Structures are given as C-alpha cells and as structure tokens.
Amino acid sequence: MAPGLWLVATPIGNLGDLSPRAVVTLRGADLILCEDTRVTAPLLARHGIAAPLHALHDHNEAGEVPRLLERLRGGARLALVSDAGTPLVSDPGFRLARAAMEAGLFVSAVPGPNAAVMALTLSGLPPLPFLFMGFLPPKEGARREAIARLRAAEGAGLSATLVFFEAPHRLAECLAALAEGFGGRPAAVARELTKRFEEVRRDSLPALAAHYASHAARGEIVVVVGPAEADAPSGAEEVDRRLRDALAAGQSLRDAAAMVAASTGLPRRQVYARALEMGREEG
Ligand code: SAM
Q1: How many A from CA of 164 to the centre of ligand 1?
Q2: Cα(273)–Cα(257) distance, rounded to whole angstroms?
Q3: CB neighbour list of residue 222: distance below 8 Å, 6 or more residues apart
Q4: Could you identify the atom of ligand 1 that is nearest to the CA of residue 117?
Q5: How far apart are CA 279 and CA 240, in angstroms?
Q6: Which of 91, 106, 194, 228 is buried most deeply by CB count within 10 Å?
Q7: What pLDDT shows up at residue 57?
C-alpha cells in the first residue's frame, strides 16, 4: 500500500459489501479518517482493524486539511471513509482530496458501494446519461426553484435520467414537487438498498407521489426520474401548452404567466410577453 490518501468505499447497509481490498487498505492505514467514529469503529472491529480513527466532517474538514497534508508529506498512509458508501459523494472529503491532489501527493481510491449508482441500475430507467443531483433543497421554495432550473436545462436540450437522494420524512413532498415539475414521467423509488427490506417501486411520478402521500416511507431512499423524452414538446411548445391550459382553466394572463414561469424556470417577463403574443395570434 503506497503512502498517500486512500478514499475507501464502505457498505451502504449490507456489511458483506466491504471489499477485500478495502479491508487490506484500512488495515494498512496509519490513520483512518471517518465522519463519525461511532459508526466506523464497529465496522473496523468486525474485521479486526486496529488503526487509529480520527473524525473528519463538514464542520472541521477545512481546519484539518493543513495538518493532514503535513502527515501525507511525511509519508503517512491515510484512509478516508464516510458513514456509508463512497466518500465525497454527498459526504465529506472533497476539500482534503483536492488539497492533496493540488499538493502533488498520491491519492487513490478503493471503489465500492454507492446508493445513487445502485438505484440507477435497479430503476429500469435509461442509465446513460444520468445526472446525480444529491439532495434537493429541503425548503419548498428552494426545491421548486431547483426543479425549475432542471426543467429550464431540459428546455435547452438536456436529456438525462435524474438521480436524487431524499430523506424518508420528505419523500412525499419531494415526489409531489417532482410530479408538478416533470409531469407523468416514469420514475423509481429505491429504498433500503442492500438491506433486508430492500424495495424498488417503479411507476409514474404522480402515481409514486400518490402512493407515498398515503404510505409513510421508512429507511434510506434514492429517487430516480426518467429523462425528458426526445419527442417531448420543445421548451417553447411546452410553454405555450401550459399557458393555454392555465388560461383555459380561467386564470388571468398575469397569473398564468407567473405559474408557468415558476414551473419552467423561465423569466416571468418572458412568459408574460409570450402570453400576450399568443393572445394576439389567436385574436
Ligand atoms: N456516500 C453515500 C453513497 O455513496 O451512497 C451517500 C451518503 S448520503 C449522506 C446518504 C444518502 O444516500 C441517504 O440519505 C440516502 O438518500 C442514500 N442512501 C444511502 N444508503 C442507502 C441505501 N442503503 N438505500 C437507499 N438509499 C441510500
């Protein structure tokens, strides 16, 4: 095992998923950096790994980097793990890894479990290209804006399967927001992957939203949303369609424009101008 920084993936539930190379690497480390020593210590004990543990998390990572770089320069073997899965992926470690790379120090990884990729492979949705978004913002307004930005990117040509992490108590509202933003697209909710109650539910976004509105979800969750279809209406056609629907439903021009702007991510002024133009075109 070369001196340097080793990013080591650990299980996302099933302890049998710790790879033999991960065990060898952790055993050979001078120091193991982890998010929470209470989570990592039992995993190490199970494999008879006695290397010292040190907590590295979002709150102390920036401050710890200089000292850890010193140790790496001195020839130490440092292993970095997170509570579960692949470090750096919605987990700490990026600052340290980048600093070590910029300092010209050796950095490598022992690959392994990752909930996003496992959910993608079990979703039944096109695996390529995919866009991993991590967690959507927890607050409603910011979440809606994030979804509107994705819709706007799709309006500009992005077509990718979308992968989100979500907490169980926010799943129902997250799916409702995704259904509002992306309509009836196919999607999947992957729960408790690699664990005893593993479940993948595949359905349209509105059907999944309806299901989880009445069935509280438990455990750890990944949401996967199918891509915008190649033959889906263009951004402009979709804006026209939404405006027409809103106006037909009796909304004022101003309200219809505001609603369509919010759901597409387009500037309100632009949508309002288009609504006026449509009114003129249709006499
Ligand atoms: N670094 C991890 C990885 O590589 O998978 C992800 C860490 S992130 C802080 C934790 C989130 O990942 C959870 O809230 C959940 O969305 C997802 N996750 C982790 N383990 C999971 C599992 N066994 N089943 C489903 N989702 C999981």
Answers
A1: 10
A2: 9
A3: 115, 116, 118, 119, 163, 164, 165, 166, 189, 190, 193
A4: 5
A5: 11
A6: 228
A7: 94
Lookup: tokens for 4: 């340097």
Domain boundaries defined on the chain: 4-113, 116-225, 236-282
pLDDT on residue 71: 98
Give 87 Cα–ligand 1 centroid separation in angstroms.
11
Write out pLDDT tens, residues 217-273. Answer: 999 999 999 999 855 555 567 778 888 888 888 888 888 888 887 766 567 888 898
Residue 81: pLDDT band (50, 70, 90) is very high
- Say how many Å lie between the CA of residue 181 and the centre of ligand 1: 24
Q: What is the mean pLDDT of the chain?
A: 93
List residues near ligand 1 (CB under 6 A): 12-13, 82, 84-86, 89-91, 114-116, 165-167, 190-195, 220-222
pTM (2 decimals)?
Answer: 0.84
What dotted CATH number matches 4-113?
Answer: 3.40.1010.10
* Ligand 1 atom at minimum distance from 13 CA: 23
Distance (Å, whole) CA 145 – CA 68? 38
Right CATH for 116-225 from 3.30.2130.30, 3.40.50.720, 2.30.40.10, 3.30.950.10: 3.30.950.10
